[in-house]
Structure formats: C-alpha cells, structure tokens
Fold:
Amino acid sequence: MIHSLAGTISNQKIDTEFLRRVFFTPQSTPVPVKFGTSGHRGTLGEGFCALHAQSIAQAVARIHLEEHITGPILVGGDTRLMSRETARLCAEVLSGNGLTVILPDIPVPTPVFSFEIRSGRACACLNGTASHNPPQEMGLKYNPANGGPADSTLTGKIEKYANEYMANPQAIKTLPLDEARQQGLVKTTDVLTPYVEALGKKIDFAKIAAAKVKFAIHPLGGTSLPFYQAIKEKYQLHNVDIVSTVQDPSFNFIPLDHDGKIRMDPSSVYPMKPLIELVQQGTYAFAGASDPDADRFGCATSSGGLVSPNHALCVMADYLIKNKRVPGASAIGRTLGTTSLLDRIAQDNGLALDEVNVGFKYFVDGLDKGRYVLAGEESAGMSVSGWTTEKDGIFAVCLLMEIQATQGDIATLYGKLAAQYGTPYYTRVDVPTNAETKQKVKAMKAADFAELREVSGEQVTRVRDTDGIKVYLEKSWFLVRPSGTENILKIYAETFAGAEHLRELIFAAQKILG
Structure:
C-alpha cells in the first residue's frame, strides 16, 4: 500500500547537472582529505570530488599492500547523486593496484557493509555516503576487518597518504571497470539475502506479523528500500506498509528541516512530518524510518508523535535486558551526549555503563567482544553485540516494531520507564561561533575548571575533557563540543530537576565557557 507523502516539499532546487560537473572538475582547489567521526565529507566540488574518492582509494590500497591485508574489499554507497560514480572510481583504483573488489549492483546500507565484513565475505569496505546530510554533500568512509568505523590511528594514516595523492594525482593507479571485471578483479554479489535472513534470527518477525496494529515504514529515499521490501515479503508482514518507494538523488520530496535545508534526518520532526501525520490520523500505530545509508533510525507512534532517539534507546535497552536477547552482554554503552537515564537502567539491572566519546568507532571493540546489550547515541544510532559493529537503522526499526507488537506503544513504554527511574529533561542547542572560539574550547582541560564547585544549585562532581568539556553535577550534566565541520558550539544538557533547571544549565554552560 503506497501513500502520498507530499508534506511541505522543498522549493530549493538541486542543480544536479552542475553538481555532476563540479564533481569531476571542481571550480577551485579541492580541500584536503580530513576524516571526522565518520569519514571524509564535503559539498560536491571542492569539498568532495572525484580526486578525493580516487586519493582515498589509493591510500587504502597502499595500506592493504603494505600490511599484506588480503581478501576482497566491498565497495558501494547510498542513493546520493554521485554515490555510484564514487564507487566506480574506488573500484577502478583498488583493482588498478591488483586488489579484489566486490561491487554490488544495488545501493548498500552502512550496516550491511559491516555485516558482510563480519561474515567473512569481505575484508574491509569503502562506503560512499554523507548519511542524512543535505543532498549536495557527499562522503567516503572506510571500515577495516572488525566491520566498524576505522579508528583515529588508521584514519590518520589514510588522511596522510590520501593528501599525498591529492597533491600528486599521477601516482594514482587505475584500471577501467570493464577491464577489471574481465580480469576477475571486480565482482558483484548478493548483499541483500544474507542480511535479511540473518535479521530473522535477531528479530521476532512472527510476533510483528501477528500484531493487531498496522506499521508504516519510510526509507526516506535511501538504501533500505529493497531491504524493507524483502523483509516484508519473506516474513509475510501484511500489516506493514512501505509508504514511500521514491528514490530521487535530489531528495526534493523530503520536507525541509528546521533551517530550510533538505536533510533526511529520521530523528527530526520536520522531515518526519508526513509520518507523524499518519500516526496522528490513526492510520498506523507506529511509523519507522531510516536515513539514506540506513545507519540511523526514527519512529513515531499514535500516542506520542515523534519519539526522541534517547527515549527509544531506553525502551530498546529495557526490552533487550528483560528478554535476555543479547546473551553474555554485561554493559550498556552510550556516547557523552546521550541520556543518563540509560545509566539508571544499567545500574538497576546490574550492568556496567560505558560512556564514550562521540563516534560509533568507540563502541566497536565492545560490540566485537560481546560486551554490549545495547550501544547507542543520541543522534539515533544503535547496535547490539552479536550483530553489526556499525549502527543499524534497519535493525532498530524492526526491533521497535517487535516491541510495539508485543509490549505496546513505544512512547507509553518510555513514560513508564521515566515514572520508574525519574523524568530527564534534555536538550541540545547549537550556538554560532567562530574558529577562534572553537579552538579555545577544544583546548580546554578539566584542570581549567578546578575552582568550579557549583552550577545551578548543584555540586560539581566531575569534569571530563576527552571530547569537549562535560560537567557532571549531582543529578544533571552539560556538555560543550565544537562542531568538526561548522562554526558552532554544540551544547547538550540534561537534568532530572525540571524544564526550568534545564534552561538554567544551558545559560550556565554558555556563561562558564564564555
């Protein structure tokens, strides 16, 4: 069943022909390769162009040859404008260096890259994506043999080598794709069936199918579309409707985000407006979505509207614990800016709580070793041990459907957890700044706050400086982090003392850090 989800459609026209031209021939000197929390990203042209893709691929080839890493490299990307071209360029460079490449004939979700590596069918991957960022942007990320995002040491080496090739492109080796296929260096494979079959061992689709409620799924124009279609067909989910099958690299069918940009963010009320309307109208009890590369999730329910990722993470953690769905796991993992309600759930269930810097790469080792019942971040990423070492939006949406089918409304379930453990008030505020102030905050250390004893009526219990500055109070906290790509400071805060206290924390954070 397909529904029209026009919503408030963007009037911002994406000049796809211009973007194609500048991808191959930037109008100015391309910026250097710089890996952030999840690969190198930039606006098509000088921010991300064909030379970036080729240089990063040549750097990866060099590392594999130097370190004698054998096995095929999985290459692909999402549904963005230049994802297919980026994958082709990477495949030509890798095969030009004599390396074997798997190049699927469909767009590949980020979690599927991880799944394929962990299955042993690939040794690493190059993934062309810019996640939920505006359609003018493009990126490329590398995952090594553990299936998760590369750590800082490895990305630093890729940066170094790639920038050498950016300055000396004639050193890049390439082999035309047709020749690489003829020589057996580039092959295709089915990445859909193994993932969908394995997912059936993690999610109880029979319970979803038996539920007396209807579910909606929106792929937001992304890679998850054929995967959700296959899941629906294989597990006979007649009460699940995929409400949009549109795949358009301009993403003009997505309602504008808060700042007037097209942003395919499943945790934002603006792009999710059509789905929120569906549950509010009573057509569906639950609506779920994944972003274009399917590493993030979003959901809305008939009783709660759009469910915050923080709230959904708590519901999922509680369900996984009570149903012993991750045998042997001993901890919950969360990033610095994610709700501390997870801490209370962990403590009540005798689990450890690992608080890590922002970036899913910090969960990889724990996920790999079976430590995490759930590893999650406030920006709507999660996975569990025994599954992928990348965040998986498809898994999350399916798990939330199972919970809705067996336990009831997700928003109601969160309300029960808040009643049991206390209601947290949470926000994130982006404050415009300049490069000088960003650098100042980045350089701050916990010792700089040795004289800070009290904030908003609460005693300071600790200050952490591993990723911005996080100030812990008795029942509250705030975190200030400079953005890696924009001139903004991200201020996160959470308190169990009410909405007014939350406003005080944000004001105090701005004042303390100048």
Residues 74 and 125 are 4 Å apart (CA to CA). The first helix runs from residue 16 to 24.
